[in-house]
Amino acid sequence: MKTIYWFCYRLWQKCFVCFFAYRVIGKEKLVTDGPVLIASNHESFLDPPLVGIAYEQEVYYLARKTLFRGFGAWLYPRLNSIPVDQERPDMTSLKTIIKLLRQGNQVVVFPEGARTLDGKLQKAEAGTGLIVAKSKAVVQPVRIFGARKALPRGSSKMNFCPITLVVGDPISFTPEELKAKGRDDYQKISDKIMAEIAKLEM
């Protein structure tokens, strides 16, 4: 499984640099030790690997449950993908993420839940706040620029344009914030994460 992951990692890395002039701004800010929840805006289907290749170690991702069919049922687990049912969301995927974080892994999440239609940041979902409260993981905000232009939602046409990933400073939460209980408290954490993502600029 590791061989498949790193083969795809290197392939994505070369393709993004070659065809999209991919670059990372603020790479020195990346937290690479211990559990890290990597929170990114969501512009395109390209986003998961765009975030993943910024790291030198393996990271885990969420992927639509419908992708785990046929060849995808073999491939996606080997790419560290966690199936999530967007039509009937439940706690299964959230529990998996929390477990992975408690084991010291890095996990990519998109707090908005769905790709943007107009390029604007959307409101975060409360689930991200729940993950933070339960795992106590470091939150690493990142923001993608250019992926929507490269492959917008609803399109199958690829446009070769520059893509940049901007890395922000890790987000600190107070002990009181991490004692969050209930949807409103989780939402406040998610909103704070989205606010930090919104601050990131090229």
Automatic annotation (TrEMBL):
Residues 36-147 form the Phospholipid/glycerol acyltransferase domain. Pfam families: Acyltransferase. InterPro entries: Plipid/glycerol_acylTrfase. GO terms for biological process: phosphatidic acid biosynthetic process. SUPFAM superfamilies: Glycerol-3-phosphate (1)-acyltransferase. Pathway: Lipid metabolism. This is 1-acyl-sn-glycerol-3-phosphate acyltransferase. It comes from Oceaniferula flava. The lineage of its organism: Bacteria, Pseudomonadati, Verrucomicrobiota, Verrucomicrobiia, Verrucomicrobiales.
